[in-house]
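dumping this here so i dont lose it
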């Protein structure tokens, strides 16, 4: 098929996918900053790394936010449940490991007294609901 990528093309495409400062992350950061919330980035809290390197850390509140892509983190939504046909076993294994790692990191954070919120990429479509979810999470003591 003409639309199939070569391994080199796929590798190049995959190397361009960022783990930090993604569009979803920048959107959430912008919303929170506009509302007056201040945070640290990428799992740093008072000089030490937190399990899982949360995207946003609110050290004074002992709260963290992860902003996850639905496909990569195997979310329950339509995008997260899409199963690639090419190299299906590889992707199933990789995404399952990611989901398990996320759950383990969440347990570690909660065990250390941190509250955790995961914002999914699909939730960014409804900005009002997203703002309400973030406000509830950060306002609760």
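and the seq i came up w/
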């Amino acid at each position: 098929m003409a639309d199939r990528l070569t391994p080199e093309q796929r590798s190049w495409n995959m190397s361009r996918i960022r783990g930090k400062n993604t569009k979803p992350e920048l959107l959430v950061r912008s919303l929170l900053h506009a509302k007056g919330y201040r945070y640290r980035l990428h799992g740093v809290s008072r000089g030490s790394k937190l399990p899982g390197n949360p995207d946003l850390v609110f050290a004074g509140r002992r709260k963290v936010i992860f902003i996850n892509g639905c496909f990569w983190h195997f979310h329950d939504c339509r995008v997260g449940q899409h199963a690639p046909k090419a190299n299906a076993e590889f992707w199933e294994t990789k995404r399952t490991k990611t989901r398990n790692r996320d759950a383990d990191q969440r347990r570690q954070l909660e065990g250390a007294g941190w509250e955790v919120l995961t914002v999914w990429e699909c939730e960014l479509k409804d900005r009002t609901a997203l703002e309400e979810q973030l406000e509830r999470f950060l306002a609760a003591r």
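The radius of gyration is 17 Å.
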